[in-house]
## 1
Amino acid sequence: MQALSFDEIAGLISAKYAPEMVAPSQGSLVVGGEHLLEVASYLRGTPELDFDYLISVTAVDYRGHFEIVYHLTSLQHSHSLVLKVRCPQDKPVMPSVVSLWRGADLQEREVFDLMGVSFAGHPNLKRLFLWDGFKGYPLRKDYSSGT
Amino acid sequence: MALKTEPFVLNIGPLHPSTHGVFRLLATLDGEVVIDIEPIIGYLHRGIEKLAEEREYQKDIPLCDRLDYVAAMSHSMAYVMAVEKLLGISVPERAEYIRVIMVELQRIASHLLAVGSIANEIGTFFTPFMYMFRERERILDLFDMVCGQRLLYNYMRFGGVSHDLPEEFIPALAKFINQMPGYIDEYDQLLAENEILLVRTKGIGVLPPELAINCSVSGPTLRASGVARDIRRCDPYSIYDRFEFDIPTRTAGDCYDRYRQRIEEMRQSLRIIRQAVEQLPQGKVNSQVPIRVRPPQGDVFVHVEAPRGELGFYLVSDGSEKPYRFHIRAPSLINLTPLREMIIGWKLADAIVIFGSIDIIMGEIDR
C-alpha cells in the first residue's frame, strides 16, 4: 500500500500514453473520449494504481462542449484522481464505464437524463428522474427553469 | 404433482409506508419470492442542481438543507465547505468545533431514525421507533436552541455558522451525552438479541464487499460489509484529525449488520462530541464573509461522511455570483446501485427489510 502523488500518477500515465491521448492539466487528467475505456482499464487494473472505487461521475456544459468529470480513488492505496473528458455538443456520445465500475450505472443515467449525453455500452440507458416524454435537458445552459 | 406457478408483477408505491418517501418498486414475484425488480424514482425531483445554478451562492445554503431533510446539517456543512475551498477562506476554531458537534448530533438523530425504521419494517410496529424518537426529539430540541429550527436549519454560513451557541446549550448537551449511552444500552436490550429481529435480519440481503466497492456504495451500508472507508478518516476534513474515534465495521453485510453498524456509529459520534465539548475554544464563530461572494474561476470537489455515506459537492465557478455548475454526489442514490442483487431471491417481506436497511432519503435521491 503506497499512496502516489498526482505527479507520480501523471508520470506513469505519460510514460504509457501519448500526450494527445491523455495529458495532465491543473491537477486532473484530460483524456480523449475515444481513449477513455483504455486509460480507465489501465487505471483500474494496474496494481500500483488500483483505482477500484469510482466516487462520482458528472458533466458540465461549457457552451460548445461538455466535460464529463470522473472522481476516482483507490481504497488500498488511498490516492485519488480526477479524469476529465471533453465531449462535443453536436455528437454527445461517450463510452460507458459501467463495465469497469458498476457505480457509474445510475450516475451515467442521471447525466443522460439531465444533460443529454449518451453513454455507449450502458446496459440500461434510460431517463432516471424525468419521464420519457420530457422535452429537453434541464442542466444544459440553454435551458432555463423559468424561476 | 407440482403446483404450476406463474410470475406476476406487483407495484409497490410510489406512496407506500415501506418506501420512505415517494419511491416506486415494480417487483416481479413467483409466489412470494422476488425474481425481478425495477426501481422507479423521480417523483420528488425538484431540479435542485438547476435551481442552485440560477441562484447566488448564499441562497443555495437553504436548498442544501432540503436534500437530505433528516440530515440537513451535514448537507449544508458540505456545501459551505466547498464554497470556502473555492474562496480560499478559513473558518474560526470555535465555529469548526460547533460544526462538528452539530453534524455528529445529526448523525445520531439520523441513525436513530434509520434503526427505528428497520425495526418497523420487521413488524415491531412503532414500539422501538417511538423509543428512538424520544432521544431524537432531544437532539432536535438542541438544534432548535441554536437556530430556532427543528428540521431545516439554515445554520451554516460561508466562514462559520450563523449564531454562537446560546448559554443553555452546553449544559443541555452535556446532559444529553451523559444519558445517551444508557439509552443505546436500552435499545440493545430491546433489539440486539430479539428473536424476531434476528430471524428477520440475520443472513438476509447480504451485500458482499467486492460488489459494494464496485457499485460505489458508501457509509454504514459499505462498512457493514467489512470495508473500513470513512471520509472522516481517509480524507480528514474540518478538525476530525484532532479526535480519537474508531471506524467500526461488521463482517456479514446482512440486514442485521447494517442495523448493528448504525448503533456502533452512534457510540463513536458521542465520543467525538464529548471531546469537542471539552476542547471547545472561545472566540468568533464567523469570519465575516460578505453575503455576496464571487469565487475565482475554477472547480472543487469536497466530500464528507454524511449519515448515509459519502456526500460530495462538485462546484464550478466562472467568477460570477452564481455557481456555474452545482453537482451533488448523493449517497442515497448511489447506494441503490446493488439493490437488485440484494433483493432478488428473497421473499417480498424480506425485500422491504433489505430496502429499509440501506436507509435512503428520497430528497437527496431525486434532488
## 2
Amino acid sequence: MSNEQIKSLEEIFEARIARDEKIEPKDWMPEKYRKTHIRQISQHAHSEIVGMLPEGNWISRAPSLRRKAALLAKVQDEAGHGLYLYSACETLGISRIELYDQLHSGKAKYSSIFNYPTLTWADMGAVGWLVDGAAIINQVPLCNTSFGPYARAMVRVCKEESFHQRQGFEIMLKLCNGSKQQKDMAQDALNRWWWPSLMMLGPTDAESVHTEQSMKWKLKRKSNDDLRQQFIDQTVPQADLLGLTIPDPDLKFNEQTGSYDFGTIDWDEFWQVVKGHGPCNKQRISARVAAWDNGSWVRDAAMAHAAKKEALKIKIAI
Amino acid sequence: MDNNWPLWEVFVRSKNGLEHRHFGSLHAADEDMALENARDVYTRRNEGVSIWVVKSSNIKASNPAHNGELFEPAQDKVYRHPTFYNVPDEVKHM
Amino acid sequence: MKNENLYNYILGIADNSLILGQRLGELCGHGPSLETDIAGTNISLDLIGQTRSYYQYATKISEQEKTEDDIAFLRIEREYKNVLLVEQPNTHFGYVMGRQYLFDVYHLMMLQQLQFSKDETLAAIAKKGIKEVSYHKRFSGDWVKRLGDGTAESTAKMQEAINDLWRFTAELFDMTDADTAMALEGKGVDVSKLKEGYYKEVTALLEEATLTAPEGMYFSRGGKKGVHSEHMGYLLADMQYMQRTYPNMEW
C-alpha cells in the first residue's frame, strides 16, 4: 500500500471513530491503534489478575463465612474480568501466552496499586472501597470506547463490578461501627491506601504522555486530573459518613469550585513503584510466574489427553 | 510441547425461547473442558440455560473489506418490507 | 442440648464442606489457568454455601447463643469432625483434583441418601447440594482422567496423588455414634453401606484414567473423632486468625 493510500484509510478510520462507530477486529486499523490497544487492554487484564493476589491473601483468613464467600466471589470476578480482557486483546492477533510472557518478564505493566501489601482485614474494606471506587471511575467511560471487543468486555466488567465497591464499603462500615480496635484498623487502612489510590488514576496531565491520542480513540474520556478530582469529591463525604479522617491536612472544600482542594501527591513514590521498587512488585510477579510454571505439566496433560481423545474419535469413525 | 489451549467462542441462551447469543471466548484443551469452563466463567450469575461452544478456528468470518458487495446491495430492496405496499386504511390487521 | 446426636451429625457433614472449601479457597489465583481458578472457586463457594446452611440449622438445635461463625471459627481442633481426606494440603494440582474426586464420589452418594431424610431441613439441604456436587464430581473426574491419561509426567503425578490419598478413603465409611443414632431414626445415612459402590465407581474411573487403585494398603482414620493430621492445626490457625486475635467482635 502506498503512503497516500494509507493516509486516506487513516482518515476514513478516524472519521468512523469520530462518528461513534465501533471498530471491530477484522476492520482495517492503523498499526499504532492496534499496538496502543494491545498495550492498554493487556495492562488492564494484567491488573485484574495481579489484583487477585493482594485480596486472595485474605480469603483463608476472612473473619466470617459470609465475608469469606463474598471475598471469594470478588476475587473470582477479577479472574473472570482478566479473562474477558485477555480475550478482547487476543482479537488483535496476540495470544494469551505472549501476553503472559510480557507480564512475567516485566515488560508489561499493571496497575501499581497492587504492589502495596494487604496487612489487615480492614485492607479488604479499603481496597474494595477506594481501589474499586477509583477503578470504576476509570472504567465506566470505557464502555463506550471505540474498539468493539474492549467496549463489550467493559460493559460486562462494569456490570459485575457494581458489588465490589459496596462489599468494601460495607466492611469499612462494620469496622467503624465496631470496637475501638476495629475503628483504628479501618483508619490505618485508609491512611495507607488513600495516597496510592489517588496515584492509581495516573500521573498528572502535564506528565501524561498518551492522553491526546487516547482521547481521540475514546480510550480515555477525561484527563487523569479530572478523574482524580471526581474520585476525591465523591469519596470524601463517604469517609465523613464512616467517621474516618482522610490523611491529608491540606484537604479542604473549596466553595468557589465546589470541589475539594488537596495536598501534594508524592510522585517520587509513584514512579518508584512503577519502576518495580514498590513493596510487593517482586512478590506479585513471582506468584504469577510460580502459578504459571507449576501449571505447565497440567496444561500439557490436558492437551495430550485431548489429542488422544480426538485420535480415538477418528479411529471409531473409520 | 505447545500447551497453549485453543480458543473457543461461547454462546449462551439466557432463557428458553431466546436465541443463543455470543457471550465471549475462553481457552480450553477439549470440548468438554470448554463447556465446563464456559459454565463456570459465563454463567456465574445465573445468566444461562444452554451453552454452545465452538472452536474459534472453526469460524469463517466475512471480510469487512467486502462489506460493500456483501451488504450494500440489500439496502435498496425496499419491496422486501411491508411499508413498500399501499393498502387503504379501512383494511385492518394486515 | 435436646438433640446432641443430631447436632453432632450435622457438624460431621458440614465440617467436610467447610474444610474442603477452605483448602480450595487457598488456591484462588494460583491455579494452572484462569479458567481452572474460576472453576475451583465455584466449587469452594458451593461448599461454603452448604456449610452455612448446615451450621445455621445447627445453631437452632444447640439451644445456646451461638452463630454459624462461632461454630465455624471458635472450636478447638479436636472438636472438628471432618475426615482426614479433606484437610490434606494442595501439594500439586493432581492432589487437588484427586482429593476432590475421592471426596465428591462419596459426597454425592451420601447426599443422594440424605435427601430422603425424615429431617426436612437436612433433606432440603441435601436436595440442593446434589446438583452442586454432581457438577463437582463431573469436573474433578474429568480432570483425573485428563491428568491420568495425559503425558507420562502427569500420569506419574496423578498416580502419586492417588497413592497418597487412597489411605484416607476408608474413613469416609466409618460410622460415628451420632451417625448410628441418626441412621436408626431415619434422619441420617448409613454410610457404611456406601462403601462397596464407592470403590467400584472410583476404581472404574481410575482404570479409564489409566491409573491403578492401590491395593492392600493400611488406612488412616481419626478425623471423624477429631484426631486430625498435623496439617489441620495450621489450617485452623489460618482460618481462625481473626476470631482468635480479636475475640467477641462482629465483622
